Amino acid sequence: MSVAQLEKRQLILFDLDGTLVDSATDLYRAMNLSLERLQLPLVTEAQVRTWVGKGTSLYCESVLKHITGHVNPEQHQQLLRTFLEIYNASPCVDTQPFRGVLSFLEWGRANAKTLICVTNKPEQPARAILDQLNMSHYFADCIGGDRFSERKPHPRQLLHCVEFYQVEKSAVLMIGDSVNDVEAARRAGIDCIVVSYGYNHGENIADCHPQQIVDDLTELLDA
Hints:
The protein is globular and about 55 Å long. The chain contains 9 helices and 8 strands. By secondary structure, the chain is α/β, with parallel strands linked by helices. Helix 1 (24-37) packs across helix 4 and helix 3 crosses helix 4 (73-89). The protein has a 6-stranded parallel β-sheet, with helices on both faces. The model has no long low-confidence stretch (mean pLDDT 96).
């Protein structure tokens, strides 16, 4: 049986990068511009796709580990600052929604579901992406990683949604693509479905034993 049980859900929470949108090309572009500015060797998009998925700080750490063999804290902070400045200035050049996402969001809106974007990405670039892709109108809120002091895998963002919208946890579903999403949902006591196509820091998403994995969100509509 599908974990989705969409008829009983009032609140559906979505991760952004790797779940709703394919943003790796822009994350790659901004990283190489940052590395160029800091006079460091460049990386490939294929490498970037295995490094993203657990937040910007870890992404920068993985890049430095690859380039220099270790992580110098000062250099890490410098790269992080530079990357965020460059990326936040234009986060949506090549970013596009994944196949099936818009159909699923349309279904959610048509069926009066409350849809929330819950991401570890800072709120400003997250909202800019949703605005630019004409997706903002689907969401009641976009909760960035900088709204609270904790972020996924901490359950704070998810529990805020439960409390703010005053719903039972059984009426909430989380949809993500990484172990951060699975762990946050587990700790919040919320059902979670993951997509197979996202970013999980180069690790197989099946290794964290999610409740269900789908290749396309529209599969949930047929379940």
